[in-house]
Write a structure and sequence with these properties.
The structure is a single chain. With 218 residues, this protein is of the alpha/beta class. Helix content is 47%, strand content 14%. Strands 2-1-3-4-5-6 form a six-stranded parallel beta sheet, sandwiched between helices. Helix 7 (158-168) crosses helix 9 (205-214).
């Protein structure tokens, strides 16, 4: 049985490695691969009429296609969901930041999400077999970092959630004490906790609102 796979990565050696590894799959699939090295080339393939693929491997960080506002593998994944709705999406990334991984899972819901430093040839084959059988595969760093991120919900107690909600409603920080039984200094300390939770080193109220929306909190 033949499986058509699109692989997108700006490192040709990585693509060759993936192709060789998948050729050793134990399910008897013949892997027919198409490759692209940047967002523009991938865009042309994905949006081509009558283009069909069973699986699409996407690197997260790729040279952008600025004319079409395609800046990453995540943007390409959204295209895949539109133009190749039956294709299983596999995101591969060198990023291990919890929020990036969480957002990929939340926004794309890929069949597979693997941090490149995590997996060996054997693990890639294991992930491939799980995905072929309609399972979801997350590599070790993905599982651990998302688990840690979600555990930080202790930061979002009732007051912090109220602060986020009021900011999202357009209430300015200086006006928050009139809505909450908290002093302005306490509110500022809580905003530091909120920014820490969102992974924002420095940021204003708009940054807090943006991150809260990304996580579906407001």
């Amino acid at each position: 049985m033949k499986l058509k796979v699109l692989m997108v990565d700006d490192h040709p050696s990585m693509l060759e490695g993936y192709k060789i590894i998948l050729s050793y799959n134990s399910l008897g699939f013949e892997i027919e691969t198409t490759t692209a090295f940047n967002c523009e080339a991938a865009y042309e393939i994905i949006t081509k009429k009558n283009s069909t693929f069973d699986m699409v491997f996407l690197d997260y960080s790729l040279p952008a296609y600025e004319a079409m506002h395609i800046n990453s593998g995540e943007d390409l994944a959204i295209l895949v969901k539109t133009h190749l709705p039956n294709a299983k999406i596999v995101m591969l990334t060198s990023h291990s930041e919890a929020l990036i991984l969480y957002n990929i899972v939340r926004n794309i819901e890929p069949a597979g999400l693997l941090v490149k430093s995590d997996f060996s040839a054997d693990e890639l084959l294991t992930a491939f077999e799980v995905m072929v059988h309609d399972g979801i595969y997350h590599s070790a760093t993905v599982k651990q970092n998302i688990k840690e991120l979600l555990s930080k919900k202790v930061y979002l107690d009732v007051f912090n959630r109220q602060i986020i909600t009021l900011l999202a409603q357009g209430i300015k920080t200086k006006s928050l004490p009139s809505h909450l039984n908290l002093s302005i200094s306490t509110i500022e300390k809580r905003k530091v906790q909120i920014r820490d939770y969102f992974g924002i080193q420095k940021g204003n109220d708009e940054d807090i609102i943006r991150e809260a929306k990304k996580l579906g909190l407001v």
